[in-house]
Amino acid sequence: MYTILPRSQGAVLGVEISGKVDVDQEKSLIAKAEELIEEQGKISVLVVMGDHVGVSFEAAKEDIRWVLANMQHLNKIAIVTDSKLLAALVAIDATFAKMLGIQEKHFDRDEIDIAWHWVESPA
Question: Has residue 4 got a pLDDT over 90?
Fold first, then answer.
């Protein structure tokens, strides 16, 4: 399940993910991101990952398909989680994202204010 965070505004979309995300929830989130892209052109995303997050295969497939089709509209991606595994994966992914002009960075949960400041600041 996901929740749009109240600090989301302008070209910044903040989302908290908890529990399991199914394909219908993923499509709903994609629709929100597409609305923002239509309004702003390029967006930044802050994702807070709760403990025990899961994603159905179909939802993961939709997410990957959408990201690949919309990379040119992504500016910054902040992943906020205390998971060491996800932090390592973000570090690897950030290298590839940088080649595509996307800034991606991991933040621990106690650094959420720093993460918001980072995604809200100009590129």
Answer: yes
In sequence order, the β-bridge partners of residue 12 are 9, 44
- Determine the distance from the C-alpha atom of residue 63 to the mean position of all C-alpha atoms in its chain, rounded to a whole number: 10
DSSP assignment of 65-107, as one string? HHHHHHGGGEEEEEEE---HHHHHHHHHHHHHHHHTT-EEEEE
- What sign for the dihedral angle of Cα 114, 117, 120, 123? negative
Among 71, 84, 18, smallest CA distance to 45 is for: 71
Structure tokens at 25: 């929830």
* pTM summary value: 0.92
Percent of the chain with pLDDT strictly greater than 70:
99
Neighbours of 120 (CB within 10 A): 17
Measuring CA to CA, which residue among 103, 95, 47, 112 is closest to residue 71?
103
Q: Name the CA dihedral angle for 82, 16, 42, 87, rounded to a multiple of 10 degrees.
A: 10
